[in-house]
Structures are given as C-alpha cells and as structure tokens.
From TrEMBL, chain A:
Any single GO CC term annotated in Swiss-Prot or TrEMBL for this entry: plasma membrane
InterPro entries: AAA+_ATPase (IPR003593), ABC_Ni/Peptide_Import (IPR050388), ABC_transporter-like_ATP-bd (IPR003439), ABC_transporter-like_CS (IPR017871), Oligopep_ABC_C (IPR013563), P-loop_NTPase (IPR027417)
Domain of life: Bacteria
CDD domains: ABC_NikE_OppD_transporters
Boundaries of every ABC transporter domain copy: 5-258, 348-599
Name by which UniProt lists this protein: Peptide/nickel transport system ATP-binding protein
Family in the record: Belongs to the ABC transporter superfamily.
GO process annotations (BP): peptide transport
Molecular functions per Gene Ontology: ATP binding; ATP hydrolysis activity
Membrane topology: Peripheral membrane protein
Assigned keywords, A-Z: ATP-binding, Cell membrane, Membrane, Nucleotide-binding, Transport
TrEMBL record, chain B:
PANTHER family given in the database record: OLIGOPEPTIDE TRANSPORT SYSTEM PERMEASE PROTEIN APPC, PEPTIDE ABC TRANSPORTER PERMEASE PROTEIN
Keywords: Cell membrane, Membrane, Transmembrane, Transmembrane helix, Transport
DNA-binding as UniProt keyword: no
Residues in ABC transmembrane type-1 domain copies: 82-271
Family affiliation: Belongs to the binding-protein-dependent transport system permease family.
Protein's organism: Murimonas intestini
Membrane topology: Multi-pass membrane protein
GO biological process, one term: transmembrane transport
GO CC annotation, single: plasma membrane
Name under which the protein is recorded: Peptide/nickel transport system permease protein
C-alpha cells in the first residue's frame, strides 16, 4: 500500500427491526505520519461510524461491515476478527483513541494513575515501576502540573479540560502511530478547546503521528487540518488539501456549510442556510444524496456520482465543475442583512443584580454563608434591540436568565420590566405579567411536553392569559403562529418527537411568541442544532425581529453566533460583566484581556485568515465560583494583573456612552 | 360523537391489539368480567346451596369441576367468586391509586413541610407489613366486602406515593415544566395537565399489576380465614379449603388457583399494552 493508513471502499450498514440502513457508503481515505486529517460533517453524516468501523469497534449486530479494507503499515487489519489479539494490539497500541465526553470516558472508581498504567502495561508489557515512570512522563507531556502528586487522584477531582488531557495521555501510552480524536473538544469551552487542540496537534507533530480529527466545527478544521474529508449522508462528497477546500470549494454541500456558519469576521452578512433536513439513514436517495437540498441540482443528479479528480489533490462528487457552479452562483446574488439602528425605550433594565446561594451547615441546617453566583451585574435592553450575553460555561449566563424570569430564589438588585421593578413581586402578582417576558430554551427536545400535541403547547399561553375570545380566534392565532415560524399549520396535531430538532425549536419559538411578549430571552437557542439548521433558526429570529419589532436577550457560548445576531454584546466571566459594547466595536476593538483571549480562541473557518492570526493562549481554566479570586475575578489568569487587580474589584468604566470595560489596566 | 373522536378511538384499539398477546390478555379479562356479570345465567346451581348427598365429588357431567365439602358446585362458585375477586381487586386498587398518586404528586411538587409530613406518614404505613396491617384493620372494620376493599386499598397506598413522588421529582425539573412557569401557568395547571400525564406510565403498570396482587391478597386473607365471610364465594377461600382436599377432588383447589393466575396475568399484560399505546413517544413504532 502506498499510504501509511489507508481505508478502501468501507461500507457499513445497520439492521433495524423494520429496515436496513446504510450508514457508511463506499468511503475511502488515507493518512500519513505527522499529518492532521479532518473529517467534517453534520450529525448523522457517518463520520464517527466510519472511524469506529475501521477499528471494528461497532457492535455487531446491529452493525454489519459489508465490505472494505483497512491497511495499516501494509497489513489489512480487516482480516482480523473484532476481538482477536491482533485487533486488540492495534486498538490502543498502534491506534490511539480520544472520545468526545471526557466526563464519561474515564472510569470514575479508579485513579487516573491506574488507568494510564493499565494501558501502558497492556501494550508495552513492562513492569509496574516502568509503567509508573511512563505515566508520569505522559502526564508531563499533556501538561498536567504536579503529575507525581496527582497520579493518585480520581477523575472527579479534575476539570473537563484536564480529563481530556488525561484521555490524551492514555491514548499516547503506547506511542501510537495514528490517533483518532472524535470531537475531542465539543464538550469543552472555547479557551480550553484551543489549549487541547494545540496540545494534540503539537504532540502529533513531535511524535510524527497521524492525527485523524473528527469535528463539525469548520473553524477548527481551518485552523488545524492539512487535509479534509467532507462527509454527507454516509459518503465523502469532497476531499482535498485544506486551502483547496476553503479557497476553491467545489461541492455545493461544502459551499452550503461555509455560507451557513456565522464567522467572527462577518460584516452584516445574512447567513445562507441549507434548506430542509438531511436524508435519514433508512431513506437514502438515488444518486447524489444532497440533491433535494441543493441549489444547483438537476435531473442528472439522480445518477450515482463518484468522486472525481479536479486537480491539486482535490476531489468532488458533484456533477458540476467548480467553474460551472461559479457561473450559476452569480445569478442568485447574496442578500444583505437589513439593519434598523433605531431602538426605542428601555424594555428591560437590570441594575446590580446579584444571585446568591445559601450554604447550610450542621444538623439544624443553619445558614453558614453565601455563595455568590452573580456578582452584581447591570445592563439594559432597548425595544427592538438584541443584547448578546456571552461567556464560557459556569460564568452565570443561564443563572442571569433565570433570575430575570424570577425562577430562582436568592436574587437581589433591581430588574425593571417596562420601568417596573419585578423582583419584589410575589409569584401570584407576577404571573399575569409573565406574558411580557418569554423564553426560548436551549434543548428543543426537553423543553416541549412529550405528551401534548404541539398545538396545545403553542396555544397554551393564549389560554393562560386569556388572550383569545373563542375557539375560532384561538385556532386562527395558532395557525398564524405556525406560519410565522415557518411550520405548516397542518402539522399542529403532532407531538414533539415527530418533529426534527430544527422544527421543534420553531415550535418553541412559536410558543414564546404566542403572548406577544415585550422581550424574549433566548438561552442558547441554536447550540443543540447542526450548522445548516442553526442558520435557518438564526435567520428566522432575525426576520421575526424585523417584522414584529422584537427585543431579545440572546445568551450563547458561541461568539460567532452572538456577534452575528446581536446589536450589543456583554461578556461575562465568573458572574461579572467584564465588557459591554456595540457588537462591531467589541469584536474590532476589544479592550478587556479576557474578551481579547476569548476572541482569539475562536477559530475562523478560513485557513488564509487563520495563518495570519496571532495566537495567544489563555493559561488555566475558569475557576469555580467557590474559588472566586478577591479583586478582579480574572486576575489570576491575566498577564496584565498587578497588586491592585488582586485587591480591588474593577467597575465598568465607560468610554463614551457605549463601550464599558471593567479593567484597571486599560486607560 | 364526532368523526374525529371516532377515528381516534378506532386508532387506539388498532394500536392496542396489534400485539397478539395484548389481544389475548384483553379477551381473558373480558371473559372473567362477563362470567362475573352473567354468573346466574351460566349455571343451574345456587352458589351457596348445600347438597350433603354429593360432597367432594370428582368432575362429572353434572358437576364439571366436581363439588366441595358441602356439596356445592365448584364451577358455579368460581363464577360467583369472579365477582368478589374482580370487585375487590378493581375497587381497592382504585382507592389506593387515587389516594397514593395524589399524595405523591402534591408532596413531591410542593416539597417543604408538606413533603416531610406526607413522607413520614408513608414511612409509618410502609413499616407495617401490609398483610399484618390488613389483618389489624380487618379486626376494626369487620369482614364485609366494603371494608375489605378499604383495608386492602390502604395497605398499598405507600407504593403509589413513593413511585409517584420519584416520578414527579424527575419530571418537575425538566425544561418543559420550567417552560410552563415561564408561560405563566398556575400550579394546578402544571400539576394536572403536564406533570400527571408524564408520570403516569409506570403508575399504569403498577395499577394493573396491583389488581392481580390485591386479588392474591384477598385470597390470602380468605385463606387465613380473615377475608370474606363464608359462605360468600371467593377464589382465595376456595383454594384454602380445596388444598386440604386435594386427594379427594384435586380440581376443587387447583381450578380457582388457575383462575387467579390467568386473571392476574391478563391484567398485567393489558397494563403493559395500555402504557405503550398511551405513550406518544412510541407512536409509529407500534
């Protein structure tokens, strides 16, 4: 074989009760030592199954490997049985694996030392002392400080980022020649993600290991990949060197992905979503799988499309050539996002909001102290405006939302809704006002009652607040709401699980709109959705804002999304707002060291830009609120911090009226 | 009844009976209900009339399942016994389910002092073995069918309360319940139209399996002589009396036992089937 690792014509199917579905359809790829190869695609595209199948890790049945060869260093490992000694030597020995969830991929009842050593002893066949030495060396390599002392710690004593480092250490235990990392940073924060991926790629480069990185994040691909495979519906639709895929995109699906994802360097661009949803594995189309969602599809697309060479190592499975696509593209010009910069009065004003949680002690449950979760934040939102609230996990975004909605105990400060302070109101008094402030939830699966037809869910606020006079008006309003969010009113008798993720989120939006609220709090409304669906929902929210003059508080951890949708952005860190400004200005002229680091950590899906960017790594991780530093909450991770930062807490300092920064070090 | 409800009912039964086993169970339960209702029409004998000339006969053409120690026809007494068993089973389960579910729902949803009081009360009930409790209550309330239903009902309340509160605790922290609060729904609406339906699947299974258990419990009490007053026919009492006469007429003790088994089995399978059909998440797969 000409390549170090080469997979040829891999086909995998799953046999269900009713039908057989094809998960991986004739996939071939290769990897060379020292190379970073990325597999990119949306959920269900078969990117993980491909890798699991190549290592024979799929449960058989229901999975069936129908054909294909996997050549590793000139040996076809597909000839071995899944549980044969040879295959076990390959897994963990020649090929190391890292999975998505660092929280669940370590055994909680064994110390990390034992788990690393187990892998070392298994593959290197050495003594316990040698294994211990090797474990220490590995922990040092993956950047765990004080490795000797921490060898006897249990997984729960480590943060998510640290656990992922330990997973990397285990994967590296036997000095593998190939590392397969399946969405290794999807569960982590953006600054941790940058740390982990930099570590992984530098280790791979140093040891001359081939790194196969599976991800849905195009930014990561642009930043790290040398070669890319784009998968859709179990097939590779485009492959080639990174700069070719991004600069000379040849397949409409890849094009679609790139236009659908919001970017940090976007300026007022309207996202172009990919219409519809992907085919389910049980119902594959004939010919090109993408044709029912493709702008360029023609009758010829019904025929089977093989990958065709288009020069420079790039291959695409589209009948149209790059030039032909370019030609057709000109006809449909991109539409600009319409902006209204006129905002009305303040709808919501938050002043010095604090949320504390009582710490109780002893058998009498006496209050022994308080844990401050939100440490006095203030902001306001004007009519028709979107304020983005962004920050890493644990910074208090969702707590802020719940405090404003009066779903929490222990809040103090003032929350003015249309000028009236709602915090002191009793639940009974506030209930009638709830129609003015609504919420869109993160998870469209858990936020809809699974037992009710969606029509009842969408219409419920109308009944609760007595907004309709009779049944006819109710029906009319519900139909209207369905049309408003782009759903067929004829679907209203279905229950939630009969909808796709994107459709469920539309139902959630319709429900939030039902009572015509003054402000809608969106808590990570798109983070559970695939890129193409995410773009549909973002566009929907923008359109609705235009048409209905809606006001949003938009909470998210994805800076690109927040920047795209928000007029103003507030950056949160450990229960504080550290910077607040107009969205464009914040991204162009960030002042707070944390904002700068955060922006720096977000990869932009364009290798040309990524190469030019200066990289600054933020050390450490977000501490827990139990260990909030005195003074500035960011002082222990900040390179600029001095004595004053550690003692005093900085207030927001306003530059003009618009840009506030809570930092002593900027002048 | 409009057309829409008609198709809904039609669809419901089609889904329910798609599994042949559920169909069989439904037929079984229906069979016993019908025999209980039409008992007098099915047999020429009186259930309690003694015929001392024909005691402990083996099965024959005139007495299909033979006779008991007082010369009463066993088959006739099984028919009438179905009445006792079904009424006691269904009614006492309803009593305990309504009380237990309400207590569990309220205590878990509101929490606090109410929860503490209700939970401790349930702990007390649970610490007493249910058969002992039933025996003790039997001394207080007497041995009529009515009091037996109340006694058996009270002794199974804790199972429902515990199961319901466990369910409510997991459901009430779901996003869709938060969504209800955000929408401004009252507690009563949240409890009745959102939490209750989402907690009901395991309760339904418990309900039907408890019908069987209660029929068995009634049998045990009758077996111990603390159940239904003789001469009222009851399957449990018949098993109890028949088991000492196994050599003379084996069918006398075994037949009512088989009936208990069949009825209990029928209710259990029917309960499973109902749960699956009523869960919209399984729509399409059934």
């Amino acid at each position: 074989m000409e390549h170090f690792l080469e997979v040829k014509n891999l086909r995998v199917s799953f046999t269900g009760d009713i039908q057989k579905s094809i998960a991986v359809d004739d996939v071939s790829y290769y990897a060379e030592p020292g190379e970073v190869v990325c597999f990119v695609g949306e959920s269900g595209s078969g990117k993980s199954v491909t890798q699991l199948a190549a290592l024979q890790l799929l449960p058989v049945p229901p999975a069936v490997i129908e054909g294909g060869e996997v050549w590793l260093e000139g040996v076809n490992i597909m000839q071995y049985k899944a549980d044969s000694p040879q295959m076990r030597a390959v897994r963990g020995g020649e090929v190391g694996m890292i999975f998505q969830e660092p929280m669940t991929s370590l055994n909680p009842v064994k110390t990390i030392g034992v788990q690393i050593m187990e892998s070392v002893i298994l593959h290197l066949k050495c003594s316990r002392e040698k294994a211990r030495e090797r474990a220490l060396e590995l922990l040092g390599q993956v950047g765990i400080p004080d490795a000797a002392a921490r060898l006897n710690d249990f997984p729960y004593q480590f943060s998510g980022g640290m656990r992922q480092r330990i997973m990397i250490a285990i994967a590296l235990a036997a000095s593998p020649k190939v590392i397969v990392a399946d969405e290794p940073t999807t569960a982590l924060d953006v600054t941790t993600q940058a740390q982990i991926l930099d570590l992984l790629t530098s280790l791979a480069a140093k040891n001359n290991t081939a790194l196969i990185l599976i991800t849905h994040n195009l930014g990561i691909v642009a930043r790290y990949a040398q070669r890319i495979y784009v998968m859709y519906a179990g097939k590779i639709v485009e492959e080639g060197p990174a700069e070719k895929i991004f600069g000379h995109t040849a397949h409409p699906y890849t094009k679609g992905l790139l236009q659908a994802v919001p970017r940090l360097d976007d300026q007022n661009r309207r996202l172009v979503p990919i219409d519809g949803i992907g085919p389910s594995p049980g119902k594959r189309l004939t010919g090109c799988q993408f044709r029912n969602r493709c702008r360029y599809s023609s009758e010829k697309c019904c025929e089977e499309q093989a990958l065709r060479e288009i020069g420079g190592g790039q291959r695409s499975a589209c009948i149209w050539s790059y030039e032909e696509l370019k030609e057709q593209e000109k006809e449909g010009a991109e539409d600009e996002r319409k902006e209204t910069e006129e905002f009305g009065e303040n709808v919501l004003e938050v002043k010095d909001l604090r949320v504390t949680y009582p710490l109780r002690k002893g058998i009498l449950n006496r209050k022994a102290g308080e844990l401050t979760i939100i440490d006095g934040i203030s902001f306001s939102i004007r009519k028709g405006e979107t304020l983005g609230l962004v920050g890493e996990s644990g910074c208090g975004k969702t707590t802020t939302a719940k405090a404003i909605l009066k779903l929490l105990e222990g809040t103090s400060g003032r929350v003015l809704l249309n000028g009236r302070d709602i915090l002191p109101l009793r639940e009974k008094e506030f209930r009638s006002q709830r129609k003015n402030i609504q919420m869109i939830f993160q998870d469209p699966f858990s936020s809809l009652d699974p037992r009710k037809p969606v029509e009842e869910l969408v219409g419920e606020p109308l009944l609760i607040h007595k907004l309709v006079k009779d049944r006819a008006e109710y029906d009319r309003r519900v139909d209207e709401l369905f049309c408003l969010v782009g759903l067929e009113p004829s679907m209203k008798n279905r229950v939630a699980h009969e909808f796709s993720g994107g459709q469920r989120q539309r139902v959630g939006i319709a429900r939030a709109l039902a009572a015509a609220p003054d402000i809608i709090i969106c808590d990570e409304p798109v983070s559970a959705l695939d890129v193409s669906i995410q773009a549909q929902i973002i566009n929907l929210l923008e359109d609705l804002q235009q048409r209905l003059k809606l006001t949003f508080l938009f909470i998210a951890h994805d800076l690109s999304v927040v920047k795209h949708i928000s007029h103003r952005v507030a950056v949160m860190y450990l229960g504080n707002i550290v910077e607040i400004s107009d969205s464009e200005e914040l991204y162009a002229k960030a002042r707070h060291p944390y904002t700068k680091a955060l922006l720096n950590a977000v990869p932009i899906p364009d290798p040309a830009i990524e190469q030019e960017r200066e990289r600054r790594m933020l050390p450490g991780e977000v501490p827990s609120v139990m260990k909030r530093p005195a003074g500035c909450c960011f002082c222990d991770r900040c390179e600029l911090s001095d004595e004053r930062c550690r003692k005093e807490k900085p207030e927001l300092v306003w530059d003009g009226k618009k840009h506030g920064t809570a930092c002593f070090q900027i002048t | 009844m409009d057309k829409e409800t008609k198709t809904k009912i039609h669809l419901f039964f089609r889904r329910l009976f798609k599994r042949k086993l559920v169909m069989l169970a439904a037929i079984l339960v229906l069979f016993f209900i019908l025999t209980a209702i039409f008992a007098p029409l099915l047999t020429p004998y009186e259930p309690n009339k003694q015929d001392l000339t024909a005691i402990l006969q083996k099965p024959s053409a005139s007495h299909w399942l033979g006779t008991d120690e007082a010369g009463r026809d066993v088959l006739t007494r099984i028919f009438y016994g179905a009445r006792t068993s079904l009424i006691i089973g269904v009614v006492s389960v309803l009593i305990s389910a309504v009380a237990g579910v309400t207590l569990g729902l309220v205590s878990a949803y509101y929490g606090g002092l109410l929860n503490t009081v209700i939970s401790r009360f349930i702990d007390v009930l649970m610490s007493l073995p249910s058969l002992m409790l039933a025996l003790a209550l039997g001394l207080v309330f007497g041995h009529s069918i009515g009091s037996l239903m109340i006694i058996l009902g009270i002794s199974t309340i804790p199972t429902y309360t515990r199961m319901m509160s466990a369910q409510v605790l997991s459901v009430k922290n779901q996003d869709y319940i938060t969504a209800e609060r955000v929408a401004g729904a009252r507690n009563s609406r949240i409890l009745i139209s959102h939490i209750l339906p989402n907690c009901f699947s395991p309760i339904l299974v418990l309900l039907t399996s408890n019908i069987g258990m209660t029929i068995l419990a009634e049998s045990s009490l009758s077996f111990l002589g603390m159940g239904i007053n003789p001469p009222t026919a009851s399957w449990g009492a018949m098993v109890s009396a028949g088991c000492s006469k196994l050599l003379l007429n084996p069918v006398y003790g075994i037949a009512p036992g088989i009936c208990v088994c069949l009825l209990v089995y029928g209710f259990n399978v029917l309960g499973d089937g109902l749960r699956d059909v009523l869960d919209p998440r399984l729509r399409g797969s059934l």
